[in-house]
Amino acid sequence: MDLPALLLGTLLLRPYVFVFMAAFLFCSIRLLGLRRTGLFFVVTWFTAFVCEASSIRTGIPFGWYFYTNSTTDRELFIFGVPFFDSLSFSFLLYASYCLALFYVLPARGNHAAEPVNLFRRHTWPALLFSGRIRTSWPVLKLTVLFFTFIDIIIDPVALRGERWFLGQIYYYPEPGVYYGVPIANFVGWAVVGLLALSAYFFFDRRLSPARGHGDGDHRVMTGNILLGIGLYYGVLAFNLGVTFWIGEAQLGMVGLLIFLPLTALLILRLLGRLSPPSPHPASRSGPECAQ
Questions:
Q1: Distance of alpha carbon 63 from alpha carbon 54, whole angstroms
Q2: Would you kindly state where each structural domain of the chain is located, as residue ranges?
Q3: Separation CA 140–CA 200 (nearest Å)
Q4: Model confidence over 254-281: pLDDT tens digits?
């Protein structure tokens, strides 16, 4: 098949991936602007693609796994890697990044005269989109953690793709200890997140502020960050829904229990009852980059 036909086939075969991708672009452009969104996407996609292409040939960094190539005539593969697969890392890392920002960014004090109401946006904590903090070490660490966490749900259900509309697209030659997934796979996700976000932070600090956006330390971005968190929980809900749908109740309950404490902390932060950590001065180095 020619390239346009394969691209169309990829879209028709994996529509949910492109729905999440569209949501990522919408959310990210609102928060980061067009330049940084493009940079975030390219850096993350390229990092994930290189790591996946490496792992199916060398076992590094995800461990050994192989694609079945059962859909090579219906969707786009690049050097043996399905296009949609490496594409997914971009919106997953962005959603994890927003979740990390929500816990670390400082909030402007006394932003509302009335108590916090989850259903009234003007009472939410006014998170300041600080250029110094948004590329800091605490944000990097938390993002990698949340990025790896969501794969605890994604990979086991994807491995059972023959039982839903994903299809059996890959397999591990030696099934792992966590519902068939090797621990090396999660290490690989952490490596991708660390490399991609570190590279993005490097370039972000060197980009000039976007025209008309002013000083990043004075921009309140609570709503736009919550949009990214909504993407995170949208992906999570989709995968948990599929998990229960295919009859993997135990795996689904494990996922719910893993994310229950995180969700409780999220609500506490939104209610203004959880203060962010103070970044170490060394972690705030680098020029501020107001988007």
A1: 10
A2: 3-284
A3: 10
A4: 999 999 999 999 988 888 777 766 544 4
